Amino acid sequence: MKAVRHILCAAALALTLWGCGRATAVSEVDIVPEPMFMVQKEGYYVLSRTLSVAVNGVGQNSPTVKYIMKSLRHAHMRPSLVALSEASDIVLKLNDTVNPELGEEGYLLEVRPTGVCLSANSERGLFYAYQSLMQMLPADMVDRTYRSVLLPECTILDRPRYEWRGLSLNLANNVVGAKQLRKVMDAMATYKMNRLCIDGGRWSADSLQWHTDSLSYFTLSDISSLAEYGADLGIALLWDSLPSLALDAAEGLRRVRMGDEVVVQPDGVWDLDRYQANPRYQPEATEGVSTLGTFYRHSLLPSGVSSALQARVRGGQARLRTECIADQRQAEYMLLPRLLAVAECLWSPDDKRDWQRFRKKVEGQKERLQIKGYAYCEGSFTPLFRATKVDAHTMNIAIETEVPNTYIFYTTDTTTPTRQSPIYIGPVNLRRGTHIKILPVYKDVERDSVYEFVIK
User: Dmax over Cα atoms in the chain, in whole Å?
Assistant: First the structure.
């Protein structure tokens, strides 16, 4: 009843504001990666299109403040910087004394009935607090203008699990140029990733260019500009290889050693060039399948790793090789949404990671990615079965796909299912030997083709 009352109050307030222009209410906070601590309360704050921003402890011309102001304008809002003593909609605050709960990259985000406050020990923490705030706003704010947005009262205290949250891109096929790399870094910043490693080419001392196998190149000016762009997003851009990099297979890790610290790159499991759904219905990729669920459920460290080594693990990274990638759109398609799983695995505490919640959040993030012009994979529609024995001749069958809100039409009489066939609404009892055929439908589109199974 409390949740229902909460939603009804928001709806009533939103309807009141409709008379003053287009308004919308946010009822639930869904952020990727999942914050360390979050509590949602009953109150709301009305964030108007014309809003004031106050800063405390950080310069108005700092890269973070300039980024935030530009981003708010891009979201069709009209921000203005005001003195801290004045009433303000958003306060950006660097802590006077270090808050040990936040560390270097953590933040505190508070939506109160009186306004929004983002605080951190560093500008990078403020940047990540703002990324979380942007995920609370409607996805379509870059496409349409709202007079006001009702934000739910909440408190979020967050910090990353690992320092190194990376992506490795092999550009041997050079389907990703300087403009496209900026777009990749934009997506990484949204989900709080902070290392982009580029390899697959070579330096030419004569031409001062970084060449790929296809003889395309990046100039020193390109690289300098990209490095500066990445720095504003909190992303370190590393070309060719990491300094002092060496492989080490000790204790069963396929990992990168940096002095006494380790960055884990899970071989195979986090390879973004592998198929992410049934290969019959996907663009050409490297052999093997790693779905969104495969990425999300992977533990960065295998069981049995010593506590001494765990303490030395600095973080991890996924890898995309471009040998099978035809163009930039396919590169994005291979990255997304699996990159979100990598981001949450590297940022969020293990006890805050939940597959069912994550797959629901991804549905909302798809809308944001689409509006921003990214290509992405809808996900795997291969049916997943859970069979429980009822008796010697009967099994109880539960069916789902990795993608929420997928309709499953099925038959058990060997005929081909259509949208007029029975729809799966819950576990069913089927006799052993039953031939079941399944047709997945998502967003009113028939996905893949008919899947066939025999109950054993």
Answer: 76
CA–CA dist 396, 428 (Å, integer): 6
The predicted structure's pLDDT at residue 256: 42
CATH 2.60.40 location in the chain: 384-454
What is the percent of the chain where pLDDT is above 70? Answer: 90
The answer to whether residues 337 and 375 touch, using CB atoms and an 8 Å cutoff, is: no
Which residue has better confidence, 322 or 91? 91
Looking at 3.30.450.20, 3.10.580.10, 3.40.630.10, 3.30.379.10, the CATH number of the domain 2-158 comes to 3.30.379.10
**Rounded to whole angstroms, how far apart are CA atoms 288 and 284?**
11
Mean pLDDT, the chain, as a whole number?
89
Phi, psi (5° rounding) for residue 347? Answer: -100, -45
User: Contact, 127 vs 194, CB < 8 A?
Assistant: no
CATH 3.20.20.80 in the chain is located at: 164-371
Neighbours of 259 (CB within 10 A): 9
pLDDT band at 29 (very low <50, low <70, confident <90, very high): very high
pLDDT band of residue 336 (cuts 50, 70, 90) is very high
Give 81-105 pLDDT, tens digit per residue. Answer: 998 877 899 999 999 999 999 999 9
| Cβ-based burial of 318 (10 A; exposed 0-12, middle 13-18, buried ≥19) | buried
Structure tokens at 348: 């969020």
pLDDT of 260 reads: 53
Residues in the chain: 456
Contact by Cβ (8 Å): 286, 321? yes
Going by C-alpha positions, the residue among 449, 428, 425, 430 that lies closest to residue 438 is: 449
H or E element that contains 329: helix 328-335
DSSP character for 271? B
pLDDT tens per residue across span 305-321: 888 888 889 999 999 99
State how far the Cα of 196 lies from the Cα of 181, in Å rounded to an integer: 9
Cα gap 352→214, rounded to integer Å: 44
CA distance 399 to 395: 13
pLDDT, position 202? 79
Strands (E), 171-306: 195-199, 201-204, 209-212, 217-219, 236-239, 246-248, 255-258, 261-264, 274-275, 286-289
Q: Which residues contact 151 (CB under 8 A, 6 or more apart)?
A: 26, 44, 45, 46, 47, 111, 116, 136, 137
